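TEACHING EXERCISE
Course module: macromolecular assemblies
Task: Read the component lines below, then compare them to the predicted structure of the full complex.
Student: A.B.
Group: 4
Components provided:
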Amino acid sequence: MIQSLLLPTHKVAVIIFLLHYVIKTFLLLINKPEALKKYTAGTKVLEMIISVLFLFTGVWLMVEKGSPSTLQIIKFTLVALSIPIAIIGFKKSNKAMAVTALLFIIGAYGLAEMNKANKKKAALKATVEATRDVVTDPAAAGYNAVKHGEYVYNNISGVPCKSCHGADGKAMIGGAKDLSITTLDKEGIKSAIKNGQNGGKMPPYGSLQPAEYDALAEFVLSLKK
Ligand code: HEC
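Instructor-supplied answer key:
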């Protein structure tokens, strides 16, 4: 429950934080010290709440993922640097510093978005080729979710599941988990497939059909004996 709220909360906090700093920097740049003072005073509590939320959810997300990626470390460093620069910049009404801090935050945001777009592209490549002798329509007669799942498992384009997990799910190539002893339930398995795990070591397959996620999960569960 809390975990599923983490990422959306982080995103909303980042966007409000960004807008807030754009407004402040803008007021500083157009030489409106009175307006800036008023705005700053009026948003003091909001700024505190948003900053705490933003940093707290960000750090939590990073810790949860285990090993942070290089990109996350760069992102984190940019944000961490931007904070003292922004504080000093606004205190001294130093435009260059305020703009630098804003650029750092925008840079971190841009990096995150870029990374997301790349991941999406990679996941989109994975599609399941047409099948000849496996029924893939859950509504059709003779449909067997485990069989359908097995087909997808072995034939999905890009990197098929079996190349890391093996045909029986027990191969642990490249740190892959033994699927025959997974403790995840059906929803957990579907989420692992859809979103990936451990910073992409288990790659996300984000663009499959709902029936394909269901079938894959049924197949993975059938590996448990
Ligand atoms: C490039 C290698 C690779 C491919 C391809 C791959 N996986 Fe994984 N998978 C992993 C790794 C590594 C983990 C463990 C991630 C971790 O440490 O949390 C994992 C974890 C999982 C888990 C979670 C198990 C658990 O108990 O936490 C499931 C379920 C899973 N994979 C299913 C699949 C399915 C289904 C496919 C194909 C659609 C697939 N994997 C393709 C490497 C891969």
